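Researcher: Go.
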Amino acid sequence: MQITISGDHRGHGAVEGVIKHLNTLGHDVVVQGACDGEACDYPVRSLAVAQDVAEGRSGLGVLICGSGIGVSIAANKVNGVRAALVVDAAHAQGAREHNHANVLCFAADRTSVDVMCEAVDAWMHAEPQPDRHARRVEQMAEIERGSSPQDQASSSA
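Model: Structure:
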């Protein structure tokens, strides 16, 4: 699977660690805007990763900045991207299964590279779940299109 990855100067070391892990597993990794630890702008890198995923050039994307918040906000500005800031493997798995996350975001200041790699593995092995989760993902897409989705929650929600 092709995975696009990037990050800012605070996430540089973690980006390198996750790239190494993904390469070891045999994935095709595309690096958008390599940052060597010098100050660099996360919105630019987030946009590049998000566009690769939204336009189908990559199946999934990974973004890492100091807090994880900036990259997730920036990536979610791109229609079709569902970027999730996660803290561990269980969080990542749920983001994929329940929210159909296609970009995973991490806080380099709070998450170790080992935990990031475990989370990426769990996320890549998880499958988006149908039923009520798919309905809610479609409601998010409606919002992207400028519509107002109707609440369809039921007792099984």
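Model: The first strand starts at residue 2 and ends at 7.
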